[in-house]
Design goal:
Blueprint: E1 10-14, E2 21-25, E3 31-35, E4 42-46, H1 50-56, H2 66-91, H3 98-108
The chain binds zinc ion.
């Protein structure tokens, strides 16, 4: 089953110190300490979803920076907007507008 390892999600990072590109495994919901194999510079990579953390109460809204807050708000708004679109399309099936066609027809006569 070794070939399955090829399909494990991996992310490529470029070291800001020596420009070496290296891969590391993706671990959803976790924080990773990644070390550059060339110059040993350490990076902290976070796969933690901030919205999930907010929902779980693990993330304090007040500790977020302005940029992080803005990102989260945009993310939530797009999520709500797409959800709204999905629900409204369920409620109102798209129908051909027959009223307008009859009005145009009566004007022509
Ligand atoms: Zn490096």
């Amino acid at each position: 089953m070794a070939f399955l390892k090829k399909f494990l999600p991996k992310k490529v990072i470029r070291c800001t110190n020596c420009n070496t590109r290296f891969k590391f495994p993706v671990k959803p919901g976790k924080k990773l300490n990644v070390k550059c194999p060339n110059c040993s510079t350490q990076y902290v990579v976070s796969f933690v979803n901030p919205i999930m953390q907010l929902v779980k109460g693990q993330l304090n809204w007040n500790t977020l920076s302005k940029i992080e807050k803005r990102k989260l708000i945009i993310l939530l708004l797009t999520l709500l907007a797409s959800l709204g679109l999905i629900f409204s399309s369920f409620k109102q099936p798209i129908k051909p507008n027959s009223d307008q066609i009859s009005i145009i027809g009566s004007n022509a006569i």
